[in-house]
TrEMBL record:
Keywords: Cell membrane, Membrane, NAD, Quinone, Translocase, Transmembrane, Transmembrane helix, Transport, Ubiquinone
GO cellular component: NADH dehydrogenase complex; plasma membrane
UniProt record similarity statement: Belongs to the complex I subunit 3 family.
Subunit details: NDH-1 is composed of 14 different subunits. Subunits NuoA, H, J, K, L, M, N constitute the membrane sector of the complex.
Organism name: Caldilineaceae bacterium SB0662_bin_9
Sequence intervals crossing the membrane: 12-35, 66-86, 98-116
Membrane topology reported for the UniProt record: Multi-pass membrane protein
Protein name: NADH-quinone oxidoreductase subunit A
One annotated GO molecular function: quinone binding
Length: 126
């Protein structure tokens, strides 16, 4: 493979795109704050109930299971984020054995964690 060393000048177009995107986003946000309507309505502080005024207090407790499932989702979602760079570097012959061993250890830890959560009943909804 013929690899060319990257210089800082090679990344200048990317930097310009990022700066322009951030500037446009900032301008849009500032304009919406300046030009947007400022109406204080009673309905803004109420919970949305399909356009119908609520009959009683809408605040109620959520079971802890919702938060537990959310945390487990984030953990396993991060696992997938770590799998992508590994899959892209697997074609490199110099790193193939090392990266395969590292990912094997990582997947073993994740599977052991999943089995532990399963046995502890973290995934049971009852």
């Amino acid at each position: 493979m013929n690899e060319v060393a990257n210089t800082p000048q090679d990344f200048l177009p990317l930097l310009v795109i990022v700066v322009v995107a951030l500037a446009v986003a900032g301008i849009v946000i500032v304009l919406s704050v300046i030009l947007g309507p400022r109406r204080e309505l009673e309905a803004k502080s109420e919970a949305y109930e399909s356009g119908i005024r609520p009959f009683a207090d809408t605040r109620r407790r959520f079971p802890v299971q919702y938060y537990l499932i959310a945390v487990l989702f984030i953990i396993f979602d991060i696992e997938v984020v770590f799998l992508y760079p590994w899959a892209t570097t697997l074609h490199n012959d110099a790193l193939k054995k090392v990266s395969l061993a590292a990912m094997g250890v990582f997947m073993a830890v994740v599977v052991i964690g999943f089995v532990y959560e399963w046995r502890k009943g973290a995934l049971d909804w009852d």
